[in-house]
Design goal:
4 helices; mainly alpha; 3-stranded mixed β-sheet; Helix Hairpins
């Protein structure tokens, strides 16, 4: 029975390792999705900044075009002044020119404001692009790390499964059935070690005489409380 218990204990350690690997493998897709989302958000931020610059540039060009047209209009209006014959018409034309020039001045001020805003947005965009480049590099580094972990876990899973299959051939079938039943009922743990007269599965004290018997590993003994199979791995304190 001692050999069978040792094999069961080894099987339990393998199953715990497989459980950890499975939890990691289940988590990796979520982490990859999180990285993809982070990558997408950063790209969108940059794109929005670029679109803002384009809109401002478009507005600037539109205003400059309009201003140029209005300035031409002033020149043409001023050219008509030599054709005016009465003072009333002359004063009316001057008033018209003054109104257009005032509007042009406001247009020029707006264009200057736009130019300042464009410069500021471009500076912020350059800064953001540099920052985001650093973020994207970190994202890619994290992605690469996860991919490497996935590859290691795949290799580890294959190795542990091969070891498990080899162990199962050496363990009595009735013990395997009991172990599997306990494992399903007890959160993946069917065999636990005992330390300081305490079951390391439920952490309840076991009777002193049972503790002595467990240390021999010569019989199949189950915890009176959680019913897990008890195993002595030599690391607990002896009486």
């Amino acid at each position: 029975m001692k050999v069978q218990l040792e094999l069961l204990w080894e099987l339990q350690k393998i199953d715990r390792e497989l459980k950890c690997i499975k939890e990691d493998r289940d988590r990796y897709p979520k982490e990859m999705k999180r990285l993809d989302e982070k990558h997408r958000i950063e790209k969108e931020r940059i794109q929005k900044e670029k679109e803002k610059v384009e809109l401002l540039e478009k507005e600037r060009r539109k205003k400059e075009g309009h201003l140029s047209g209005e300035q031409d209009k002033v020149k043409k209006t001023e050219g008509r002044m030599f054709e005016i014959k009465t003072n009333k018409e002359y004063q009316a034309l001057l008033h018209e020119i003054e109104i257009v020039k005032d509007a042009n001045n406001r247009e020029e001020e707006e264009i200057l404001r736009l130019l300042d805003e464009i410069d500021e947005v471009k500076q912020n965009l350059a800064k953001r692009e540099k920052e985001i480049q650093g973020v994207l590099e970190k994202v890619e580094a994290e992605r690469k790390t996860i991919e490497e972990k996935m590859a290691r876990d795949d290799a580890g899973w294959k190795k542990q499964m091969e070891r498990r299959e080899a162990l199962l051939k050496q363990i009595e079938s009735n013990l395997v059935r009991r172990y599997n039943t306990l494992k399903e009922k007890r959160y993946g743990v069917g065999v636990v070690c005992v330390k300081d007269e305490t079951c390391q599965g439920c952490f309840v004290n076991i009777p002193p005489q049972m503790y002595i018997e467990v240390q021999k590993n010569s019989a199949l003994i189950q915890c009176p409380n959680c019913n897990r199979i008890l195993y002595w791995d030599g690391n607990g304190k002896t009486k």
